[in-house]
């Protein structure tokens, strides 16, 4: 049985998209996918998690009981649905332009007992952002559960994608002297199954403590504009038959290696500060 997407408007306003991402640094679309579609995504993630756990280096630690896994797009049954969703396409084109590249597919799993992370951004701000005031990449997140307060929800400090924290000594982790700024701005996100968000990975954020008995897997899609080079941190792979079966417009946007057989992905996007500095 095919799982259909919920009907969405065919036109999304570029000004609204840019206002949100250049302002708060995060936007979202409620009910972008049917719950059954998300359930299938969770099924695929559970299979991939079990496989990753069985291999040395398969899970990348992001703090106590918190892991990241980069995956092959064709192992996710709804990958094509995601990258062709009208809202996803509209957001990418509005912020990154028509020549954007999909560079990352993976998922984060904050498990029971995961601790609150330090405030951080996912990578150092490029000159295009700090000096040119342009966003050159985006991260899309899709929760696979209905998030509750005790499940370690995501927190973000709106507007901080423009902060020059490198001036304080670290390009990704602000000093604790700046924490009051982020805590005063902090928004706790409680997305439900079917919702999708897009954010600048430069906006200061953190995962909070998971005090529940449930994991909170979230799928991550990373997208670059022409000026960004985040693909070097990832190893997006597809097989030739899968690549050939994709629509030409999707192939144009995939920054991937075409392989005879899918190869084990060496998890390369290490964020050492998250493994060393997790706090209660």
Describe the structure.
With 280 residues, the protein is an alpha+beta fold. The protein is built from nine helices and twelve strands. It has a single domain, classed as Jelly Rolls (Sandwich). The strands form three sheets. Strands 1-8-5-10-4-3-2 form a seven-stranded antiparallel beta sheet, with helices on one face. The radius of gyration is 18 Å and the shape is globular. The N and C termini lie far apart (44 Å). The mean pLDDT is 92.
What descriptors fit this protein?
280 residues; alpha+beta; globular
SSE layout and pairings?
Elements: H1 14-23, E1 26-29, H2 35-53, E2 60-61, E3 66-70, H3 79-83, H4 86-96, E4 101-110, H5 127-130, E5 137-143, E6 154-156, H6 179-185, E7 187-188, E8 196-199, E9 205-207, E10 218-224, E11 237-239, H7 240-245, H8 248-253, E12 257-259, H9 272-276
Parallel strand pairs: 11-12
Antiparallel strand pairs: 1-8, 2-3, 3-4, 4-10, 5-8, 5-10, 6-7, 6-9
